[in-house]
Design brief:
heterotrimer; B: about 290 residues; mainly alpha; ABC transporter involved in vitamin B12 uptake, BtuC; 2 strands; C: about 350 residues; 3-stranded antiparallel β-sheet; two-stranded antiparallel ribbon; 5 strands; about 65% helix; globular
C-alpha cells in the first residue's frame, strides 16, 4: 500500500536520507530501528509531508504523495503520531482527541472507541493535556492519531521517556489497532520491544537502511551489525 | 464622593470601547504571535469605509456596522493570506515590519483621499441622552450601548474559541502549527481566519469610536496604543483578562482627565508602565 | 588519500579593501565640503546635515534591530531627549552649544539606561510598541514643562551669539564627524567579540545564553549605545534648525524613516543603511512636488521588500553577487598544495538574517 523509491531528504545543507527504498504491505506492522540521528524520524516525517526538501517517489495506494503538504496527507489516510507527543497545550484531553478528527474521515474510530482502547483517559478527558502523566499523554497522542481514521498510522518514538510497564501497556493496544485494518509503522529505540511487536523490521544507519527482514529471520549478530555498524559499510 | 463614582462609571464604560479595540489585537497576538502595528489604522479605515453608506445611502451608523464588519473580515483574511503569510516564519521582525509598512500606507493613503478634516458619525439624540441611575449619577445611553455590545462580543468570541471547531483549530494552530498540520488544519487558512476575526472586531470598535468622537487619518496610532496597553495590563491568554485590562485603562484615563485634558492619556500610560514594572505578565494572566 | 590542505582565513576581499579606501576618500571629501566650490553653500550643508542625521539614526536602529534583534518603534524618545538637552544645557545652563551636543548624547544614553529595565520586561512585538508608549510619555512630559516652551516648543536663541558662517560650518563638521565616527565605531564593534555576541543574540537568545553570552548586559549595551547615537542626532539636527517642539522632537516619523531606510536598504548589514538612505532621499527628491506621496511610496516599497526580498536591496545584492564592501564574515580560502598562486574563494557560511 505504501511504496517508497529512492527517497532522499535534506535539512538545509545536511542530507539525512540516502536513496531509501521501502515497501509496506497492507495490514502489517513494521518497526524501524536504529541509533539516534540515523534517519528514522526523518523517514516518517517525509511520508507525513513535513520535510520540504526531498526527492524520490512516495506512493500511497498508487497515488504519488511526495509533493503534498501534511494536511493533505492526513486526509488521504496517513496519520502521524509525532515524536515527543506534541499534544496541544491549550486543549483538553478530549479536545486533543476531537481535533484528531478535523480532517473529517469517517470510520470506526470515535471518541468512544478511543476510550475503550485506553480506558484511563476517560476520567481525565476534561483535564488540560499537560496535566497527564507521560504514559497517558502518549495514549492521547496515539488516540489523536487514530481519530483521523487512517489506513496507515505512523508512530515516532512512542516509548521515549516512558517506563517499560507503560510501554508494554501501550503496545498491548497495537494488536487491536491492527485487527481493525490499520497498518502501522513504528519507530522504536527499544530493539526488544520492536522485535516482539513487528512483523517486519528495518534498521537505519546514517540515512540508509542497512538490514530488513522478519524478526524470526534475523539473528542478534546481524542486528547489532546493522544498528551499530561494526565493520565497513 | 459623587465625583469618584461618576469618574469610575464613565471610565468603565470607556473601557468597554477600549475592549473592542483590544480584543482583535489579543487574538492576532495569541494565534500568530504578531503585533499588528497597523491595528489602529485599520480601525480608522473601517470608520472611513462606513462613511460611504452613511453619507450616500443615508444608512444609520449602527446598521452600517454589519456590512463593514463583513467587509473587514474579508479584508483581514486577504491581507493575511496575500501579505503576512509570506512573512511568517521563525523571524518575528518580518511580519511586524510588514504591518508597520501597511500602517504608513494606510495613514498616508487615507490622508490623500480624505485630507485631514475630522469626521464623525451622527446618531442624533442618542448621542447625548443619558440614563439617570440615581439623582446625581447619569450615564450616557450611547456609552452604555457600547459597553453592552462589547461584553456580548467578548462573550461570543470566547464561545467561538472554546466551543467551535474553528475555535479549536485556532487554539491548536497557536500552540503548534506544524502538528496542527498533521491533524489536517491548514495553518495559512487558520491565520487568515484569525486576522479576519480581528478585523471584524476592530471594525466595530472603529465605528463606535467614530460615533463617540471625531476621527482623522492620524487617529490610528492612539487607538493602537490603547489597545496594546489594555492587552498588557490585562495579561496574556484570556479574552476576559483583556476586557478587564481595557476597563482599568478606561478608569485610569478617566481619573487622569480630572486633572486636565492631556493628563487622561498620560495617566493611562503611567498605569501601563506601572503594571509593566510590577507585574509584567499582566494582572489577569492565565497560562493554559 | 588527500593532500594536506593549506588554507587562509581572511575577512577582506579585493573589493572590500577597495571599498575601505573609497570610504576614507569619501570621508575626506565630506569633511572638506565647506571649502569646496558649488557644494560649500549653506543650503547644501543644511541638507547634508539632515541626510547625515537620518543615516546615523538608521545605523543606530539597524544596530539595535538588525543586529540585536530589538525592534524599537520608540527611538524618537531619545532623539527628543537629545534635542531638549541642547536647549536645557545651552540655552538655560549657559554651556557652549557645541559642547552641549555630546552632553545631549550622554543624557539620551542616561535616559535609555534608566528606562531599560522597564522596557526589557517586554519582548518582540510588545517591546516595539512598549518603546513607542515610552516615547509618548516623554513627549507628553516635555509638553508640560513651560520652562521649555510647553507644547509649542522653544527656539535656540543662544546660537545667535555665534556668527552665521562659523555656526553653519561647525554644525556641518560636527555632523560629518559624528557620521564618520559612528560608522567606524559600529564597524569595529561588529567585528569584535561584542559583535559576535550580538549576532548570536539576534539568531537565538536562548542559544546565545547557553554559550555564555550575557544576554541582558548585551541588550542593555546595544540599547544604550543606539540611544546615545539617537540623542546626538537630535542634538545636531535641532541645533541646525534652531527650533524644536515636542511634537517635532518626539515625532514617530524619526523612527519610521529609520525603519524604512534599514528595511529597504538591507537590515542586519553594515552597508544597508547607506543604500537605504540614498533610496530614501532620492524618493523624497523625486516626489517632492507631490506632498506626502513619498511616504506612501516608501511604505509600499517597504512592504514589497519585506514580502519578496526580506534582506533588502543590499542583502539581495550580497547574496546574488557575493558583494561585500564592509565585510564582517570570515572567508575560508583553500589553497591546493599544487597550485599556491591563485586561491579561489570557497564556500562560506552566511549569518542567518531575515531569510528564513
Amino acid at each position: 500500500m505504501l511504496q517508497v523509491q529512492n527517497l532522499e531528504a535534506r535539512y538545509g545543507d545536511f542530507q539525512a536520507l540516502f536513496g531509501i527504498d521501502f515497501d509496506l504491505k497492507q495490514g502489517s506492522i513494521v518497526a524501524l530501528i536504529g541509533a539516534n540521528g540515523a534517519g528514522k524520524s526523518t523517514f516518517l516525517k517525509s511520508i507525513a509531508g513535513q520535510i520540504p526538501n526531498k526527492s524520490g517517489q512516495i506512493r500511497f495506494n498508487s497515488e504519488e504523495i511526495g509533493h503534498l503538504p501534511s494536511d493533505r496527507i492526513v486526509r488521504d489516510g496517513i496519520s502521524m503520531v509525532p515524536e515527543g507527543r506534541r499534544l496541544f497545550r491549550s486543549l483538553s484531553v478530549q479536545e486533543n482527541l476531537k481535533i484528531g478528527a478535523f480532517a473529517g474521515r469517517k470510520g470506526r474510530w470515535t471518541l468512544d472507541a478511543i476510550y475503550s482502547l485506553f480506558p484511563a483517559l476517560k476520567d481525565k478527558r476534561h483535564s488540560p493535556a499537560s496535566a497527564l502523566s507521560g504514559g497517558q499523554q502518549q495514549m492521547v497522542a496515539i488516540g489523536r492519531g487514530l481519530m483521523s481514521n487512517p489506513d496507515l498510522l505512523m508512530c515516532d518514538e512512542v516509548s521515549l521517556g516512558l517506563s517499560p510497564a507503560i510501554v508494554k501497556d501501550i503496545y498491548n493496544a497495537f494488536p487491536s489497532i491492527r485487527s481493525e485494518g490499520l497498518s502501522l509503522i513504528v519507530v522504536e529505540q527499544d530493539i526488544d520491544v520492536a522485535l516482539r511487536v513487528a512483523d517486519y523490521v528495518c534498521c537505519f544507519m546514517h540515512g540508509r537502511i542497512t538490514l530488513r527482514g522478519a524478526p524470526a529471520d534475523l539473528t542478534r549478530h546481524q542486528i547489532s551489525d546493522a544498528y551499530f555498524g561494526i565493520g565497513d559499510i | 464622593m459623587i465625583d469618584v463614582a461618576d469618574t469610575i462609571i464613565h471610565g468603565v464604560l470607556l473601557g468597554g470601547l477600549y475592549a473592542l479595540f483590544a480584543i482583535g489585537l489579543s487574538i492576532t497576538y495569541g494565534v500568530m504571535r504578531v503585533v499588528n502595528i497597523a491595528h489602529g489604522d485599520f480601525m480608522v479605515l473601517a470608520a472611513y469605509l462606513a462613511l460611504w453608506p452613511v453619507t450616500h445611502l443615508d444608512m444609520n451608523p449602527f446598521v452600517a456596522i454589519v456590512p463593514i464588519v463583513l467587509l473587514m473580515f474579508c479584508l483581514g483574511y486577504t491581507v493575511q493570506r496575500v501579505v503576512l503569510n509570506r512573512t511568517m516564519g521563525t523571524n518575528f521582525l518580518a511580519p511586524m515590519l510588514a504591518t508597520f509598512g501597511m500602517s504608513i500606507i494606510l495613514r498616508n493613503g487615507l490622508q490623500q483621499t480624505y485630507h485631514s478634516d475630522s469626521r464623525s458619525f451622527q446618531i442624533g439624540a442618542l448621542g447625548t441622552e443619558s440614563l439617570h441611575l440615581t439623582d446625581t449619577i447619569a450615564i450616557g445611553k450611547f456609552p452604555l450601548i457600547v459597553f453592552c455590545v462589547s461584553v456580548i462580543l467578548v462573550f461570543l468570541t470566547s464561545l467561538l474559541f472554546s466551543h467551535t471547531k474553528i475555535g479549536m483549530a485556532l487554539r491548536a494552530t497557536s500552540d503548534d502549527p506544524e502538528t496542527a498540520g498533521l491533524m489536517g488544519i491548514k495553518a495559512k487558512r487558520t491565520y487568515g481566519v484569525a486576522l479576519g476575526l480581528s478585523f471584524a472586531l476592530l471594525a466595530v470598535g472603529g465605528i463606535f469610536a467614530g460615533i463617540r468622537t471625531t476621527f482623522t487619518p492620524e487617529s490610528g496610532p492612539a487607538s493602537l496604543l490603547y489597545a496594546f496597553e489594555a492587552v498588557v495590563i490585562g495579561g496574556m491568554g484570556s479574552l476576559w483578562g483583556t476586557f478587564a485590562g481595557a476597563v482599568i485603562l478606561g478608569v485610569a484615563q478617566g481619573a487622569g482627565a480630572q486633572f486636565g485634558a492631556g493628563f487622561g492619556v498620560l495617566a493611562g500610560h503611567l498605569v501601563f508602565l506601572a503594571v509593566l514594572a510590577f507585574k509584567p505578565t499582566g494582572l489577569f494572566e492565565r497560562t493554559p | 588519500m588527500r593532500d594536506s590542505l593549506s588554507y587562509v582565513v581572511s575577512r577582506n576581499t579585493a573589493l572590500s579593501n577597495a571599498a575601505v579606501w573609497a570610504g576614507v576618500v569619501a570621508a575626506i571629501i565630506v569633511v572638506a565640503v565647506p571649502w569646496l566650490p558649488y557644494v560649500g553653500t549653506f543650503g547644501f550643508m543644511r541638507w547634508a546635515v539632515e541626510v547625515m542625521c537620518y543615516l546615523v539614526l538608521a545605523q543606530m536602529w539597524n544596530l539595535m534591530a538588525g543586529y540585536g534583534g530589538l525592534m524599537s518603534v520608540g527611538m524618537q524618545a531619545f532623539v527628543g531627549v537629545g534635542g531638549y538637552s541642547v536647549i536645557i544645557f545651552a540655552q538655560h545652563l549657559g554651556v557652549h552649544p557645541f559642547l552641549a551636543i555630546p552632553i545631549a548624547g550622554a543624557m539620551a544614553a542616561l535616559a535609555a539606561a534608566i528606562t531599560a529595565p522597564l522596557v526589557f520586561r517586554m519582548r518582540g512585538g510588545y517591546f516595539a510598541i512598549g518603546t513607542w508608549v515610552l516615547a509618548e510619555v516623554f513627549r507628553i512630559a516635555f509638553s508640560n514643562v513651560s520652562l521649555l516652551g510647553g507644547g509649542s516648543g522653544q527656539s535656540l536663541t543662544v546660537m545667535s551669539r555665534i556668527d552665521r558662517n562659523t555656526r553653519e560650518v561647525a554644525i556641518y563638521l560636527i555632523a560629518a564627524t559624528t557620521l564618520i565616527v559612528a560608522s567606524a565605531v559600529i564597524n569595529l564593534l561588529l567585528r569584535s567579540r561584542f559583535g559576535l555576541g550580538l549576532t548570536a543574540l539576534r539568531d537565538s537568545e536562548a542559544a546565545a545564553e547557553s554559550q555564555g553570552v550575557d544576554v541582558r548586559m548585551l541588550k542593555f549595551q546595544v540599547y544604550t549605545l543606539a540611544s546615545f547615537g539617537a540623542g546626538l542626532v537630535g542634538a545636531i539636527y535641532y541645533t541646525s534648525i534652531l527650533r524644536l517642539s515636542p511634537s517635532a522632537a518626539f515625532d514617530p516619523n524619526w523612527v519610521v524613516a529609520s525603519i524604512f531606510i534599514v528595511v529597504i536598504g538591507g537590515i542586519g548589514t553594515v552597508e544597508g543603511p547607506i543604500v537605504g538612505t540614498v533610496i530614501f532621499f532620492s524618493l523624497r527628491w523625486a516626489l517632492a512636488d507631490y506632498g506626502t506621496w513619498y511616504w506612501l511610496v516608501m511604505g509600499t516599497v517597504a512592504v514589497i521588500t519585506i514580502m519578496f526580498a526580506p534582506a533588502g536591496v543590499w542583502g539581495f545584492a550580497r547574496a546574488r553577487w557575493d558583494l561585500q564592501l564592509l565585510p564582517l564574515q570570515r572567508r575560508l580560502t583553500l589553497k591546493s598544495a599544487a597550485d599556491a598562486s591563485a586561491p579561489k574563494p570557497s564556500q562560506f557560511v552566511s549569518p542567518s538574517n531575515l531569510e528564513s
